[in-house]
Specification:
Blueprint: E1 2-3, E2 12-15, E3 18-28, E4 36-43, E5 49-55, E6 59-62, E7 65-75, E8 80-84, E9 90-93, E10 109-115, E11 120-125, E12 129-137, E13 150-155, E14 160-164, E15 172-176, E16 181-185
Antiparallel strand pairs: 1-6, 2-3, 2-6, 3-4, 4-5, 7-8, 7-10, 8-9, 10-11, 12-13, 12-15, 13-14, 15-16
Length: 188
């Protein structure tokens, strides 16, 4: 059993019988009235995000979570299939449990959060940054680097990303999976 002083990003809690992960939190001490904690929670069953406020000192039920490394194998339309890197067991995960499924590439290693008591997957997190090759974009024109203009580009997973005008087809770029934004050219 934890209290509001134990709240941190990534903590998994049981709220009204459902598992939630804390995405953001803010301790608020108003000039008048009692202190409270404002949180943004992600439902680990369906992926919905909600805002919730806890009065200071409230007891919360935390959930034992295990992080395990799995390798992405394939998507067959019914689920995304992953393999445990230690014992080679395979599991299927629904799309809504993955933080950025549009950037999943075969062979990519991901962290999967498991409910330790029930042994069931609750969420799948891709690496913070992924390097993907551009399969299609309009050709770049020399001298187009002076402005912050961007153009759409399709990467090898089929996702569309906005890239600077000087990026060409066939180049590898680094993408932030949390926002889906272009970060930089990939350096080997």
């Amino acid at each position: 059993m934890a209290t509001t002083s134990d709240i941190r990003n990534g903590l998994c809690i049981d709220l009204d019988g459902k598992p939630y992960q804390i995405l953001e939190f803010l301790h608020v001490k108003p000039g008048k009235g009692p202190a409270f904690v404002r949180t943004k929670l992600k439902n680990l069953d369906n992926g919905k995000v909600l805002d919730h406020t806890f009065p200071a000192g409230t007891k919360i039920n935390d959930i034992r979570i295990e992080n395990r490394v799995y390798q992405f194998l394939y998507d067959d339309g019914e689920g995304y299939h992953f393999m445990n890197m230690n014992d080679f067991n395979q599991i299927a995960i629904q799309k809504m449990l993955i933080n950025a499924p549009e950037f999943l590439k075969e062979g990519m290693e991901c962290n999967i959060l498991f409910h330790a008591d029930e042994e069931r997957p609750m969420a799948c997190e891709l690496p913070q940054k992924v390097a993907l090759e551009i399969t299609y974009t309009e050709p770049g024109i020399k001298g187009d680097t002076a402005t912050n203009a961007s153009k759409p580009a399709t990467v090898e997973t089929g996702a569309e990303v906005k890239v600077p005008l000087f990026i060409n087809q066939g180049e590898k770029i680094v993408i932030d999976t949390a926002t889906g934004d272009y970060k930089e050219r990939y350096k080997e």
